[in-house]
Amino acid sequence: MSNPYEPPQPDDANRRPDPTEPPPSPGSTPPASPPPGGAPGYGTPPPPSGTPGHQAPPPYSQPGTPPPYAGAPYGSAPYAQPSYGTAPAPQKTNGMAIASLATSVAGFVMLCGIPCPVGLVLGIVALRQVKERGEQGRGMALGGVIVGAIGTAFLVFAVIFFLFVIGVASTDTGYSSTY
Questions:
Q1: Would you list the DSSP string of 109-136?
Q2: What are phi and psi of 160, to 5 degrees?
Q3: Start and end of every DUF4190 domain (predicted)?
Q4: Which of 156-160's residues contact partners 24+ apart within 8 Å by CB, and which partners?
């Protein structure tokens, strides 16, 4: 009985050539016959055996089956739809809509609402341009109008309140105190 932990020893008939060995010299004799089941290593396969005039089926297929699908060429989808021209270019976003939203938000958050009227006007003009030109940016323009209107309203109320406080403080009430 052989040891199960030892690698099997190849016999000479089924031995494959070692790629690290040098090739045989031209005067040496080649092996007598290939091992059963195919040609050893490299080379052409043996001619098919059988009756004359009968070809062997292609390898790895059953009789009557179509040849395997070769697939699509490299870089294309296997089930690509036909192309009817180029894809439409993405629509441009209106620059005034972007400026409207940026000015309104910056004015509302950082600059006490002073630039909000500018953002409001830019937003109104941008809405008109988006409608006429078919550009994108309607949402940004609308956001600029809304934030600009709220900031402008706060600015107006702040100015009115400030003027009221100054007016009240500067008026003479007629009350005089004498000590």
A1: HTSTTTTHHHHHHHHHHHHHHHHHH--B
A2: -60, -45
A3: 96-157
A4: 158/112, 158/113
**Which residues, at least 6 apart from 119, have a Cβ–Cβ distance to it below 8 Å?**
99, 100, 101, 102, 103, 104, 105, 107, 144, 147, 148, 151
Count the neighbouring beta carbons within 10 Å of the beta carbon of residue 74.
5
- Residue 77 pLDDT more than 70? no
> Element (H or E) spanning 150, and its range?
helix 138-170
> Which amino acid, one-letter code, is at 79?
Y
The beta-strand segments (E) located in the chain are none
pLDDT confidence of residue 5: 75
pTM above 0.85, yes or no: no
Tokens, residue 7: 């690698």
